[in-house]
Amino acid sequence: MAETAGDRPGLFSVKAIPYVLIWSIWTLGNEVISQGANFSSEAAVTRVKVSLWAWLAMHRNKYCFSILLRSWDAVLGLG
Q1: More confident site: 13 or 79
Q2: Domains in the chain: how many in total?
Q3: Which residues of 22-51 are buried (b: 16+ CB within 10 A; e: fewer)?
């Protein structure tokens, strides 16, 4: 049987990355333009991770945020 994105959170995460990147860049750009916020690459990376985690949590409501902080590679299925 073929594995689907619903079977593994890492597979869903990998498939969602392009959408999360576009969303994060879009919202950060809006903040810079409309609110005069400063761009920070560290903040951008954090926003991508948090957004991806939120999307993953909505997809499979059984993970806690501390797992992301401790084992990011494992969540993505890279480690």
Answers
A1: 13
A2: 1
A3: ebbeeebeeeeeeeeeeeeeeeeeebbbeb
